[in-house]
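Incident log, structure service

09:12 report received: a user says their structure output differs between two submissions of the same chain.
09:20 pulled the input from the user's history:
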Amino acid sequence: MAGQCEYSESYSDLISGEPKTYKCHRDAIPGSRFCLFHDERYWSEHEEEVRGEFFKELEAAKGGVLLAIGYHLPEIELRKGLECDTYFHRAVFHGPFIAKGIDFSRVMVIFENATFEGYVGLSKAKFKSAAFSESTFNELADFSGATFNEPAAFSESTFNEPAVFSGATFKFAFFPRATFNKSANFFEATFNELADFSGATFKFADFSKATFNKSANFFEATFNEQVYFNNSTFAGPTTFEMALFKGAAEFEDTVFLVPYGGILDQTKRGGLFKKIITVKGTTVKCKFEEDHEITITRTDKESREEIKRGNEFEHCFGEAGVYKIRCILHKEEEGEIEVLEDPNGIILFYKSRAEEPQMVLFDRVNLVRVLLLNFMGLDRIRLLNVEFGGADRIVTIEEETFRREGGKPIKDMLGALPTTLEGVTRDDVLWVYRKLRDCYEGDARYADAGRAFISEMEVRRLYRKDGRANPSYVRWLSPLALYKWLANYGESYMRPLLLSASTILGFAAVRWLAGLPAEDALDALVDSLAAFFQIPRGSGNADILERILSAPILAALIIALRRNLERRFRR
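09:34 re-ran on a clean worker, output below:
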């Protein structure tokens, strides 16, 4: 006579979080120490029986808890939502597990340490809290269009076949140390809170058009083949610190935060928005010559109208969102603005490494808030149509951080995300500008390389190593300052050319008007040319002074001409 099933397993209670021990209460099947669910082979010859008993248990557990811990199950297809909290801890699904479009949002479902030998079809499913930590997926796992209203935990899970999360919506997404041995598809996925992929390993990954509304963590992630972040949006602090890119990595039209925060005017300040005079944080102030009626309506979610009247208008929007503003005076004007989170954040590529740097592409991307310090391969990646801070020269977040913090820790800009970066030094800033210069020169983009070089020299002129400003005499009267004024650090040959012409003509005029030895204006011009180009012709005071002034101008001109006309790829 068969006894009781001997299966037992420890698990964590959903409510209390305390460890508990599960002991099966069912009878063992003949010839085995385990019941029909826990015997490893019984399901293969009795699929209908095992499946039927499983559905009976689901029905009996309505309103309660079903412990399906360690079950061996054949193909399971759910046609309606579960009505009980269910533990599939260490369960093995030997066939497909299908629950397309099923609503699990009223119950807790735990798949920790589960093994899925067959296809997993959970597209458009809705979850309250999904726990798949340390689970193994041996066939296609389809979560496309799924909604995770609470944390979705896939920590240390292994996907041996394609994993599809395209169009999925996450509140919190936890994939630390997950392994994707085939493709990982997160196309158009939305992450509303933290997206944690720290230590994850990808073969091929597609995050194109994904939206990260809060923070994203790719700390120490490994991308073994291609990874795409094209058209994706990172709206909060993000770290790729110590990430490894072994193949192509594309960031085309990627949005990294908003450069300066507050309100992004989608209408380019046209029409009504010409009247906006100040923007601070999420507050707009307007002043009109006549009284206006302003109606404000939030358009990205339900919101009541707010009406303001008068010739002065001040409104704090309070939170991020898209708002429609309608102004009525002589004619009705309407525009839309987007109020964004204050981007006191940073996108960190600190100590990231690219094994094939030429296959890493940033195209049509704003890099104002992107820190590239110690990105190994930065000098050989491809930067096309990217924007940094600054107008006449490049200003990176490294320089902004160094100038603002004086090398102090920047962890507060990352929120709760991990980092080993304690601070930014002047040498760090110079390293980034040197690597950017090499990168641009390697791509024969000499104008951009020149802007990076100007930035490197400006940092030397303006700042001490501790982040404080250099004394005035260093900034304005040092040889480095003279080099800047004469030729913009060798990047402008027009400056020394104009200075040369001005000096020659000026001294020629002085010679002629002062009656210095010169028969006529042409003779004075020849004397001035000779003195400027250090040709012995005269020895008067004007000649000596002109020779002294011409020496640095000529040196700057020669350097500038060489840099601009004979520039070569340095490697």
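09:41 both user submissions now match this output. Likely a transient worker issue. Closing.
09:42 reviewer note: The radius of gyration is 34 Å. Confidence is low (pLDDT under 50) at residues 258-283, 336-343.
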